[in-house]
Amino acid sequence: MTRSSGIRVAVSTAILTLRRGDDGDAGLALPLVRRTREPFADQWALPGGWLTETESPVDAAARTLAETTGLAPSYLEQLYAFGAVDRSPTRVVSIVYWALLRQDDVMAQSAAHLASGHAPENVQWFDIDALPALAFDHAKIIEYALWRLRNKVGYSRVAHGFLPAEFTLADLREAYEAILAKHLDPANFRRQVEATGNLLPTERFRTGNHRPARLYRYNTDVELADRGPLGSEETSIR
Amino acid sequence: MTRSSGIRVAVSTAILTLRRGDDGDAGLALPLVRRTREPFADQWALPGGWLTETESPVDAAARTLAETTGLAPSYLEQLYAFGAVDRSPTRVVSIVYWALLRQDDVMAQSAAHLASGHAPENVQWFDIDALPALAFDHAKIIEYALWRLRNKVGYSRVAHGFLPAEFTLADLREAYEAILAKHLDPANFRRQVEATGNLLPTERFRTGNHRPARLYRYNTDVELADRGPLGSEETSIR
Questions:
Q1: Would you list the DSSP string of A210-224?
Q2: Which of A210, B54, B60, B157 is the 20 to 30 Å CA partner of B212?
Q3: In this predicted complex, what is the ipTM?
Q4: Do A72 and B84 form a contact (C-beta atoms < 8 A)?
Q5: What is the pTM of this model?
Q6: CB A43 within 8 A of CB A135
Q7: Is A159 left (phi over 0), alpha (psi -120 to 50) or beta?
Q8: Nearest CA of chain B to the CA of A20: how many Å?
Q9: Low-confidence ranges of chain B (pLDDT < 50)
Q10: Which residues of A have a CB under 8 Å from any CB of B?
Q11: Which of A144, A148, A229 sits opposite B143 (nearest CB)?
């Protein structure tokens, strides 16, 4: 039996945020890194790098994400290990992670990085409906990450990853609309989320140009359905 | 940057079946292979082996499963890539697959293997509530596979993997009860599965000691919710 000595292991991360476009609508966006060497030199790729012998895959994903983009999500989850023989000119298995990051955290982390004088180079955020040509099989990987996100939003609190601790039902619906890429009826949406028991009303309201909107928070007594027995060791970085 | 040259890639498969115990109740069982060499010599492990340079991980999982157990499931799905630094004495990332196999297929494949004179050695089926001590982190891997199966049965047709093409509602409920490890109320269960639209009644009945029970089949017009854009390339072997 040939051992896998010629196979290298890489990690990549698809990290998504929700940002408001020029048209006022919120949409999903993610950062890509322009490659500076072959293969696929000058093309865009997911942030990532090689797994080293002394770190776990999730630690490698967090490290390479920080090195290439300066971003530090609170939660990374393994998406899939991609290993098709022809996905790279040499044989590389990529363990891919995904994460959600609030837009205000993106802004704060980017500002801190700029102030430190170590701003990452060759990084750019793209709307997911306007992606450039991508290196390797990264277009397929992003498509799969979006599919998982869309599936997951139906049975978990995953949209919370885009929201602050307190939010209005309109904020939550906007996040769902961006994830699912479709309009949701406000009254039906309210009825459905209220029926889950996952949301708790607060006594606070957001005021502004419109009539005051009640702020809600997630009910953290309800167990998140999607971590399971792996716990913090394999899926979480802090 | 250190490249991952000292890291080897393995594959393992957790393949589950539903079998009737001496008490008449159906329960989950899976095959384990007794290791013949260090590390963990003489301990039990999931069927698996090394990923070679010329095959994809799912092909390697199918090959090593056939080599060690003689089993050929119709469907293998990636479970997770396990890569903790200390999970093996040397650095090994294991891409783990899982599959469901009907008990009559297990029997037929095992009989064919015996007849061929190439019966696998050191393989034994264990009830999942009576597992032996396991090598590496395989106890954790099996715990995670069961957790995924229990989650998945709630929102997909995964229990179909244990059933023949036509089955009674009692057969289906028995599969759910074994997966969830709890008793389900027959009337509630019938109401819930009929509400999904996933089941189609046939004009055939099973007769025997009890009153005739109608046979159902899955409605294959309803899209399976859990394959997504990876399609056949990464998740299926035939």
A1: SS-EEEEEE-TTSPP
A2: B157
A3: 0.87
A4: no
A5: 0.88
A6: yes
A7: alpha
A8: 27
A9: 1-4, 224-227, 231-238
A10: 1-10, 49-57, 78, 80-85, 91, 93, 95, 140, 143-144, 147-148, 151, 154-155, 225-226, 228-230, 233-234
A11: A229
